[in-house]
Amino acid sequence: MAPKLLCSECARQTKYAAVVSVDCAASENFEDEGWIGSTDSYQVVQCQGCETYSFRHLNWFSEYEDRDAGMDGHTERLYPKRNSRSIKALEFLNVPSNIRRIYRESIDSCNDECFTLSAAGVRAIIEGICMDQSIADFH
């Protein structure tokens, strides 16, 4: 059975295929102190539903293992970043380009949990729309 990832386009868990994968490993032995090891897998993955491509980084680092705390040393990062609460930016073609750019950056900030930066973007969007529509008293 193929593994599943949260697709940034479908916004649901879907099967995916690794189109390209580069794997790296490193380790160092220390006399009387044990060893440290790591592995990395860099993958271009494709959703098997909508066929959208994204990037996946899998990492294992021996120093991140803590069995008592339930940590196995593995991390997974998906790009673009996503989770079940991610907001997908809409396309507004009838809005000035600078306001569209601020809107996309505000959505990205919110998805990255930079809420203060996202709120500043919302304010800039409101002010930009007011200026575009010649609304003088928006403070």
**Terminus-to-terminus distance:** 57 Å
Average pLDDT score: 87
Global geometry: elongated
The structural class is alpha+beta
Radius of gyration: 21 Å
Topology:
Blueprint: E1 4-6, E2 13-30, E3 34-47, E4 53-66, E5 71-79, H1 97-111, H2 115-132
Helix pairs in contact: 1-2
How would you concisely characterize the structure shown here?
The chain is built from 2 helices and 5 strands. With 139 residues, the protein is an alpha+beta fold.
Structural summary, described in words:
- By secondary structure, the protein is α+β, with helices and mostly antiparallel strands.
- It folds into two domains: 4-79, no CATH class; 87-139.
- Helices cover 24% and strands 42% of the residues.
- It contains two helices and five strands; from the N terminus they run βββββαα.
- It has helices at residues 97-111, 115-132, and strands at residues 4-6, 13-30, 34-47, 53-66, 71-79.
- It has a five-stranded antiparallel β-sheet, with no helix packed on it.
- β2 (13-30) and β3 form a beta hairpin.
- α1 (97-111) packs antiparallel against α2 (115-132).
- The longest helix is centred in the last third of the chain and has 18 residues, at 115-132.
- It starts with a strand and ends in a 7-residue tail after the last helix.
Features:
2 helices, 42% strand, alpha+beta, 139 residues, five-stranded antiparallel beta sheet, 5 strands, 2 domains
